[in-house]
Amino acid sequence: MTRLPPVRVVRAATSVRTALQSLTRRMVPPEVGILELTSGCFATHTVHAVARLGIADALAPGARSPREVADELGTSPDATHRLLRAAAALGLFREDGAGRFALTSLGATLRTDTDGSMRAVVLMIGDPRYQAVWGQLTQSVTSGRPGAEAALGVPMWDYVEQDREFAGIFNDAMTRLSALDWPAVAAAYDFTSFATIVDLGGGHGQLLTRMLKVAPDATGVLFEQASVMEEAEEHVRRAGVLGRCRLEAGSFFDTVPDDGDLYVLRRVVHDFDDDRAVAILSTVCRQMPDTATLLLMESIVPSGDEPHFAKSLDLDMLVFVGGRERTEDEYDALLDRAGFRTTRVVPTISTISLIEARAVV
Questions:
Q1: SS3 of 289, please?
Q2: Name one GO molecular function term (predicted).
Q3: pLDDT tens digits along 36-49
Q4: DSSP-based three-state secondary structure for 357
Q5: No. of helices (H) and no. of strands (E), the chain
Q6: Catalytic residue at 270?
Q7: DSSP state at residue 271
């Protein structure tokens, strides 16, 4: 694993970057600044079109002209040139003196065949269905309720069950985001002291398999809905840890396995309002052994007006599922209501923090 910089170094670099961004904003009239903020959606759709058309893959062998790209992809040469030009202005490509375009390191993240590919995430965020839900933000702020049903016809999780194409896009993006967080999590937390690791709501088991690989003496339990068990078993088998895993189907609102040493919830609690989050955590507290540890992997909203991904993700949770991101104090209060006591909060160099808690006995 590549050695990661210390959290304090990353935070210092982020502070410098934030200061430079603030200075840049102050260098333009506010009318221009607000126009630039509002037209940010143009960039989202430009990057999405590049990803969906597979332009990064077409440029992987080297610099090519817009017509060469268009001939390979079956697109309009003129429109392809205009898209390449706009994307180059965003830093995805570099145009040479002959009018050919080549990938930059940023654009290379949109390839399909690289370990660092972010294409799956871009395909989700730019998807018209995803964007339609964000279009309900005004209504969600007015009502305090999610807007997915107004945009999609049914609540978010029902829609994911019904639209298998969107479900595939969504699940691929979640898998990539989990992988993106993992190096920072693994560098910040020692999983080797736990004999049995229970991943609650762990999807197809990507996180559990990673935890078991860094804790080779541990066994694992994947607790998820019955509908994903078949795919989860296949993933765990391919990862080579099926012999150390047990897969259980159920709802964490009702029960969870009672034999774990570490119970992990990664970006699960933020899907729910406080009452439903407490219901989940209370179930865990009631079922887990008194000596077990709870570990929440969540973004923590910082105080003040500093930029942070959690502040935007908070609105994403509101408009899609009625959930929320929380401050450290709000997590303390939530855990207290469920019968837990926060033992420590471990920051990482990513946007995720590790909130460790024990049951109050």
A1: coil
A2: O-methyltransferase activity
A3: 889 999 999 999 99
A4: strand
A5: 18, 9
A6: yes
A7: G
The CATH number of domain 184-359, selected from 3.40.50.150, 3.30.530.20, 3.30.559.10, 3.10.590.10:
3.40.50.150
Residue 130: CB atoms within 10 Å = 22
Per-domain boundaries in the chain: 42-115, 184-359
**pLDDT of 1:** 42
Residue 3: the pLDDT is 62
Chain centre to alpha carbon of residue 80: 30
Angle of CA points 240, 245, 249, to nearest 5°: 125
Using a 10 angstrom Cβ sphere, with 0-12 exposed, 13-18 middle and 19 or more buried, the burial of residue 330 is middle
Cα–Cα distance measured from residue 91 to residue 331, given in angstroms and rounded to the nearest whole number: 38
At 10 the pLDDT is 66
- As a whole number of angstroms, the distance between CA 116 and CA 98 comes to 30
Residue 351 near residue 337 (C-beta atoms within 8 A): no
C-alpha closest to that of 246 among 264, 220, 224, 228: 220
What pLDDT digit, counting tens, does each position of 173-232 carry? 988 998 999 999 999 999 999 999 999 999 889 999 999 999 999 999 999 999 889 989
How high is the pLDDT of residue 90? 97
Q: Considering the domain 42-115 in this protein, what is its CATH number?
A: 1.10.10.10
Low-confidence ranges of the chain (pLDDT < 50): 1-2
Catalytic residue among 48, 204, 235, 270: 270
